[in-house]
Write a structure and sequence with these properties.
The complex is a heterodimer of chains A (about 160) and B (about 325). With about 160 residues, chain A is of the alpha+beta class. Helix content of chain A is about 35%, strand content about 15%. Chain A is built from 5 helices and 5 strands. Chain A has a 5-stranded mixed sheet, with helices on both faces. In chain A, a hairpin with a 2-residue loop joins strand 1 and strand 2. Chain B is of the alpha+beta class. Chain B folds into 2 domains: about 170 residues, Aldehyde oxidase/xanthine dehydrogenase, molybdopterin binding domain (Aldehyde Oxidoreductase, domain 4); about 150 residues, Aldehyde Oxidoreductase, domain 4 (2-Layer Sandwich), CATH 3.30.365. Chain B is built from 6 helices and 11 strands. In chain B, helix 1 packs parallel to helix 2, helix 2 crosses helix 3 and helix 4 crosses helix 5. The chains are: A alpha+beta (about 160), B alpha+beta (about 325). Chains A and B meet through helix 4 and helix 5 of A and helix 4 of B. The complex binds FE2/S2 (inorganic) cluster (2 copies). One FE2/S2 (inorganic) cluster binds next to loops of chain A.
């Protein structure tokens, strides 16, 4: 099959790869661009583990064709830490013991990041809504909800 | 037709590990030339924190900071034998093996330090921060770092230890069938409040209160994390999850994530979890196994709460609205 060029900005760095037409963004990121932070749980849009941010919007990368991301800005959890300093969400997940196996964590964190960009001081209901497309087998969700709320609080303290 | 409230209680006695062939696990511990310690295992960390807890047990036993311990695990080609991570056996079985290996390594470490300080090994102690000193005379000391260097380059000693957990195999007595399937037991009790809609059969879990007796919580935050997640999982097993809804018939079974029912973050019952510590005599620093137990008592508690609410006993899982409605219908027919 003819390869298709895809050019995108991945976590602030311009990247280009030739990919097979019809490849999902999830598989392109993991297998072509070498970013394995988005996880493939179901490959059918049900678990949320593959969530990434494309041009500011939360997307399920398993349901997004890589070709449609030409010229887009793609953000994944691999790009969150700046100069080795963890992003407030990463810090809050660590401090709040909000991960066990960690498989859902990248998707949860990207869903939370998209939420906090929209709603800096979310209510508990906002948080539950924002991660309602993400399945977690291990934590019972409560530690994740608390971690996101605490990251939001520390963000607003820093802004104040 | 109405919403009916009910309360259910369940208490469990949970065996740590199993006793088929002695439930063995092995561990090897050795120091690097600069006094860091490696623990070699074949035991898999599934996310429950096995590596962290094994590092703590090794560090506590040798008398060094936890950061000085590296856990090398999960390569069954090269690691010492382990039965596996299941039956809530990790912390207890593998932890015992690690503690034994670390005790032997500590003994060699103290012997080398004694030779370097020209004192008796029995007079030495560690401060847990990287120093070895004469008891009662902390100024007469040598660092773990220098001890390891001396062992490697001067005295030709390997600061290392071997650990093994194995219990005598227990066979059932022919007369009574009695046997000793486990060496220690953890305990839990759960109280669940539900609201059952007797028109739709739907169950709303209003509150879940758990008490877990865990031996000793070696890492309290990770223990709590596992118990909170497990409690949710128990509720999920009680009311939602199955791959075989009409077992043994295969029809209508979930075939993928889309069709497998699991509650999301919007369905959380108010949950309270309390930890009790009664150290086990044979556990590493008193720990028992709590891995699977944390998701067990919620299931009978939910079944009991439903019985309390609407008077029907559902004895297969999950307790779906369909099962409740069929049972209510049979109850009315019998009345
Ligand atoms: S892998 Fe994309 S939603 Fe599950
Ligand atoms: S931490 Fe295991 S799936 Fe969420």
């Amino acid at each position: 099959m003819a390869k298709v060029p895809v050019q995108l900005t991945l976590n602030g760095t311009e990247r280009a790869e030739f990919i097979d037409g019809g490849l999902t963004l999830l598989n392109a990121l993991r297998d072509r661009f070498g970013d394995t932070s988005p996880k493939g749980g179901c490959h059918q849009g049900t678990c949320g583990a593959c969530s990434v941010i494309v041009d500011g919007d939360l997307k399920l990368s398993c349901l997004t064709l890589a070709e449609t991301c030409n010229g887009a800005h793609v953000e994944t959890t691999a790009g969150l830490a700046a100069d080795g300093i963890q992003h407030p969400l990463q810090r809050a997940f660590l401090d709040g013991f909000a991960a066990q196996c960690g498989f859902c964590t990248p998707g949860m964190i990207m869903a939370a990041k998209a939420l906090l960009a929209r709603v800096p001081n979310p209510s508990r209901d906002d948080v539950v809504e924002a991660i309602s497309g993400n399945i977690c087998r291990c934590t019972g969700y409560e530690p994740i909800i608390q971690a996101i709320l605490s990251a939001a609080r520390s963000n607003s303290q820093n802004a104040a | 037709m109405a919403l009916k409230r009910g309360r259910g209680v369940a208490a469990i006695n949970y065996p740590t590990g199993m006793n088929l062939g002695g439930d063995p696990s092995q561990a090897l511990v050795h120091s690097t030339p600069t006094g860091a310690f490696m623990v070699t295992l074949s035991s898999v960390d599934l996310g429950q924190g096995l590596r962290q807890v094994m590092a703590q047990i090794c560090a506590e036993t040798i008398g060094i900071p936890t950061e000085q311990v590296t856990i090398d695990t999960a390569d069954t080609d090269t690691g010492p034998h382990c039965m596996g991570t299941f039956a809530s056996r990790g912390t207890h079985r593998i932890g015992n093996a690690v503690a034994q290996a670390a005790r032997e390594a500590r003994q060699v470490m103290l012997e080398v330090a004694a030779e370097a300080l020209e004192v008796d090994a029995g007079d030495l102690d560690t401060d847990g921060k990287g120093m070895i000193h004469v008891k009662g005379a902390p100024q007469k000391s040598i660092s773990v770092f220098d001890t390891a260097l001396a062992a490697h380059f001067k005295y030709g000693r390997s600061i290392s230890g071997r650990g093994m957990f194995l219990v005598p195999r227990s066979f059932p007595e022919t007369e009574t069938g009695a046997m000793k399937p486990a060496t220690c037991y953890a305990h839990a009790c759960t109280v669940v409040d539900v609201e059952v809609d007797d028109e739709t059969g739907e169950v709303d879990v209003v509150s879940v209160k758990n008490v877990f007796e865990v031996g000793r919580a070696l890492n309290p935050s990770m223990v709590e994390q596992q118990l909170v997640g497990g409690s949710w999982m128990g509720i999920s097993h009680a009311l939602y999850e199955t791959t075989e809804p009409y077992y043994p018939a295969r029809e209508h079974g979930g075939r993928d994530f889309n069709e497998y029912l699991m509650p999301g973050p919007g369905n959380l019952a108010e949950t309270e979890t309390i930890v009790l510590e009664r150290p086990a005599a044979d556990g590493p620093y008193g720990a028992k196994g709590v891995g699977e137990m944390c998701a067990n008592p919620q299931i009978p508690a939910v079944a009991n709460a439903i019985f309390d609410a609407v008077g029907v006993r559902i004895d297969s899982l999950p307790i779906t609205p369909e099962k409740i409605l069929r049972a209510l219908k049979a109850q009315r027919a019998a009345a």
